[in-house]
Amino acid sequence: MAADPLLQPYHLKHLTLRNRIMTTSHEPAYAEDGMPKERYRAYHVERARAGIAMTMTAGSASVSRDSPPAFNNILLYKDEAVAWLKDLADAVHSQGAAIMIQLTHLGRRTRWDRADWLPVVSASHRREAAHRAFPKQAEDWDIERIKQDFIDAAERVHAAGLDGLEIEAYGHLVDQFWSPLTNTLENAYGGSLENRLRFAFEVLEGIRKRVGSRFLLGIRYVADEVLEGGLSRAEGIEISQQLKSSGLVDFLNVIRGHIDTDPGLTDVIPIQGMRSAPHLDFAGEIRAATQFPTFHAARIQDVATARHAIASGKLDMVGMTRAHMADPHIVRKIVAGREDDIRPCVGANYCLDRIYQGGSAYCIHNAATGRELKMPHAIPRATTKKKVVIVGAGPAGLEAARVAAERGHEVVVFEAASRPGGQVRLTAQSPRRKEMLGIIDWRIAQCTAQGVLFRYEIFAEAAEVLAENPDIVIIATGGLPHTEILESGNDHVISTWDILSGSVKPGAHVLLFDDAGDHAALQAGEVICSSGARLEIMTPDRTFAPEIMAMNLVPYIRALQRPNVTFTVTMRLLKVAQVGGELRATIGSDYGMPPQERVVDQVIVNHGTVPLDDLYFTLKPRSRNGGAVDYNQLVTGQPQTKVVNPESSFMLFRIGDAVAARNTHAAIYDALRLVKDL
Ligand SMILES: Cc1cc2nc3c(=O)[nH]c(=O)nc-3n(C[C@H](O)[C@H](O)[C@H](O)COP(=O)(O)O)c2cc1C
Ligand code: SF4
Q1: Does the beta carbon of 321 lie inside 6 Å of ligand 1?
Q2: Most CB within 10 Å of its CB: which of 339, 399, 564, 610?
Q3: Cβ(350) – ligand 2 distance below 6 Å
Q4: Mutate to test the pocket of ligand 2, among 364, 427, 435, 669 (most ligand atoms within 8 A of CB)
C-alpha cells in the first residue's frame, strides 16, 4: 500500500516535522492574565499527544501595549510570558510535536477602551468596521517602538525554547502598512509597494538578527485582499517572491481575503454551507510561484481534502485548525486506520463566535475542547457496569448514550420520532446548515459500534422505562416551541418550527416576532424570504438576533437583505386578533411607544422552548435521588451520590432542553459532564 502523504515527515530547515498536519494559529482565548497557563497548555498538549506535527500557538499574541487584546490574547510584551511559554513548549515537545507562536500588533483591529486606554494606531486614520476604533496614524516614533516591540517579543519566544514564530500580516498592523486601503502615509513607509513593505521587512530583519538562523521565522500574510482598491493578487505574488528572496523567512502561510468586516472574515474562515477549501488552489499557486515552504488553512476539514492538499503538491503543511478543535485526536485515528471515528468539524463557527460572545472558544459538539483539565477527550471505562436508559435521541441524549457506552455501560435509547436528531435535524432542514447532521451521524455511528440499543417511534412512559430495570435514567426529551406569550391571540400564531419543518407554508405577508434572538427565527426568516413573502422580523431587543454572533450572522444577512424583508428593533408583539381573513397584530414597546397595529396574514412567535418534562416528573418521586443533581459534584467531576429514596433502584437525571431552553453545546456539555462520572 502506498504511504500516506499526510504521514510523511517534512524537513523545514533544521526541524523535522513528523507529518504534514498542523494547527494554524488560533486564539482560543484561554489565556489567564494574558499568559498561557495550565488550561492553555492542556489544550495544546492534547493534540501533541495525539500525533500532530506542529501546533502554532496563540493567535495574535500581542507585542505592544497599544495592541490590547480584542479577546484575551497572550501579552507577549511582558517578560513573565517567557516562563509560561517555556512550560508550554516543554510539554508539547515532550509529546514529539513542534511548537511555534504567532506574533502581532493588531493595529486598528482592536479597541482603545481596553487595558491601558491607549489610542489605537495604524498606517492611516481609517477605521476598521469590525472593531470600530478610529486609529491614530503612526508617527516615526510609533514605527520605531513597535519594530522594537516585535524584536523583543521574538526574543522572549526564542528564550522560551519554541521552534519558531510567524508574524501575522492579514488585517493587522503589518499588512495595514501593505494595503493601499489602509496606508495613507506620505513618508518612507507609504506610497510605493517597496515603501509599504518596508515596515514588515524591517521587523523581520530585526527579529532575524536577534534570534539567529537556528530559529524558524515565517509569516502568515494576505496575498490577495479580494477587495476593490486593496492589495491585488499580482502584488501578493510579488510580495511572496520578495519574502522568499529576502532570505529572512523560512515559510509562507498564505491567506486570501480581508477580515476588516464580518462578511470578509467569514469568507477567509468559511462557515458551514460555504465551499470546502476555497483558497487551497490559490495557496498552491503561491507555492508554485515561489517554490518555497507553504502552509495554509481554510476549511480543510476532512482527511481526504487534507491528503489531496499534500499529495497534489499545493501545500507542504496543511492546517486543520477547527478540525482539531472538534477532534484533537485526528492524527492518532489516521495512524490507526480509524478515520471514520474522527469527530467531524461541522463548520458551525460556534468556536469563533464564542470568543467574542463568551470570552472562550468552545466547539459546538466537543465539550471537552478547552476544558481538558476537567473533561476527557477519551472517556475512561467505569469500574461497575450499569444499565442506562435514555429517553430522547437529540444531541443531549445521543451524547449521554455515547459517553455511557464508552464507560462500558449497557445503554438503551428510546426516541419518539422515527429518526434521531431532535432540534439538530430541524436545523439541518436548511440546505446551508445540513452539515449539522454530522453531530448526530457521528454519535449514532459511535453508539452503534458500542452496541447501544435504539428504540425508535416509542413515546416512552414510566412503564417502558422501568421495564428495562435501569440503574440510571436520563431524560433528554428536549422541549417544544413556546408561543403562549401574548396578552391575547396565542391561538392565531404559529412557531418557527412549523415553518422549518414545512408543516406550515409561509403566508404572503408575515410578521415574525423574535423574542429569543436565536437561530430559529432567522432560519425561518430565510425560508419565508425565499418564498417571496413580505416579511417583517421584529424584536423587543435593541439589536436583532442578539444570540447570533458575527460569523453566524453573515449567511443570514446575505439571505435576508432583500426588498421584501424589513427588520424592526425595540418593538414587542402584544396581541393578535383575527379580523376577517386577516390577522391584526398590536405592537408595543418597552420604551413607552403608543401601541401600533400591523395587518398581516401570518404571525410567528419565536420564544425558545418549554421543557418536555412529564416523564421526568412522573419518575422523580420513584427515583433514588429524587431527580436532584449535586452541582458541586457535577462541577468538580465526581459521581452523583445524593440519595433521598434509598429503596429505589435507579438514579434519575434530566439534561439539555428538557431542563430549560439553551443551545446544542449546552445540551452536549450537560451530557458529557454528568455521564463521564456515572
Ligand atoms: C477560535 C479561533 C481563533 C482564531 N484566531 C486566529 C488568530 O489569532 N490568528 C490567525 O492567524 N488566525 C486565527 N484563526 C484562524 C485559524 O488559524 C484558521 O485560519 C481558520 O480557523 C481556518 O482554518 P480551519 O478551517 O482549518 O479552521 C482563528 C480560528 C479560530 C477557530
Ligand atoms: S464549533 Fe463548529 S466550526 Fe468550530 S470546531 Fe466545532 S464543529 Fe468546527
Answers
A1: yes
A2: 399
A3: yes
A4: 364
H or E element, residue 175: helix 173-178
| Strand-pair partners of 453 | 412
Whether 319 and 300 have beta carbons less than 8 Å apart is answered as yes
Place of cell 499527544: 49
Q: Is the pLDDT of residue 228 over 70?
A: yes
- What gap in Å lies between CA 600 and CA 530, rounded to an integer? 18
Q: What is the mean pLDDT of the chain?
A: 97
CA atoms of 252 and 214, how far apart (whole Å): 17
Identify which of 222, 276, 278, 287 has the alpha carbon closest to the alpha carbon of residue 251. Answer: 287
Q: What is the pLDDT of residue 357?
A: 81
Q: Which residue has the cell 476544558?
A: 371
- How many Å lie between the centroid of ligand 2 and the Cα of residue 322? 6
CA distance 657 to 396: 8
Smallest CA-to-CA distance from 488 within 611, 581, 584 is with: 584
Which pLDDT value is given to residue 2?
Answer: 79
Q: Per the structure block, which three cell numbers stand in for 112?
A: 482603545
CA atoms of 636 and 653, how far apart (whole Å): 17
Pair 201, 189: CB distance under 8 Å: no
Nearest to 589 by CA among 568, 570, 605, 567: 570
Q: Which three cell numbers stand for residue 20?
A: 504534514
Q: How far is the CA of 345 from the centre of ligand 2 (A)?
A: 5
pLDDT digits over 120-134, tens only?
A: 999 999 999 999 999
Percent pLDDT > 90 in the chain is 98
Cell of 478: 428536549
Distance 400 CA to ligand 2 centre (A): 20
Q: Is 301 in the pocket of ligand 2 (CB under 6 A)?
A: no
| Ligand 1 near 269 CB (within 6 A) | yes
E strands, 533-676, are: 534-538, 565-568, 572-579, 582-588, 596-600, 602-606, 609-611, 651-654
Residues present in the chain in total: 678
Give the angle subtended at the CA of 47 by the CAs of 45 and 52, to the nearest 5°.
120
Ligand 2 centroid to Cα of residue 91, in Å, is 25
Between helices 395-406 and 437-449, what is the axis angle to 10°? Answer: 30
**C-alpha 270 to ligand 1 mean position (Å):** 10
Residue 359 has a pLDDT of 85
For 408-447, the pLDDT digits (tens) are 999 999 999 999 999 999 999 999 999 999 999 999 999 9
Under 8 Å CB-to-CB from 415, ≥6 apart: which residues? Answer: 392, 393, 397, 454, 455, 456, 457, 458
Q: Following CA atoms 306, 307, 311, 316 in sequence, which dihedral angle do they give, to the nearest 10 degrees? A: 40
Q: What is the C-alpha to C-alpha distance for residues 559 and 564, in angstroms, rounded to an integer?
A: 11
Q: Which of 649, 514, 619 is nearest to 573 (CA)?
A: 514
Say which residue the cell 449546552 belongs to: 666
Residue 1 — pLDDT band, cuts 50, 70, 90?
A: low
**Grid coordinates in use for 144?**
520605531
Residue 101: its H or E element: strand 98-104
Q: Is the pLDDT of residue 148 over 80?
A: yes
Measure the CA–CA gap between 571 and 425, rounded to whole angstroms. Answer: 31
8 A C-beta contact, residue 331 and residue 50: yes
Name residue 566's beta-bridge partners.
536
* Cα 650 from Cα 652, distance rounded (Å): 6
Q: Please name the amino acid found at residue 117.
A: W
Cell 421495564 appears where?
467
Distance from the first to the final alpha carbon of the chain: 43
In this structure, of 69-73, 123-127, 446-450, 477-481, the range with the lowest mean pLDDT score is 69-73
Q: Which helix (H) or strand (E) holds 195?
A: helix 193-211
Distance CA 76, CA 10 (A): 29
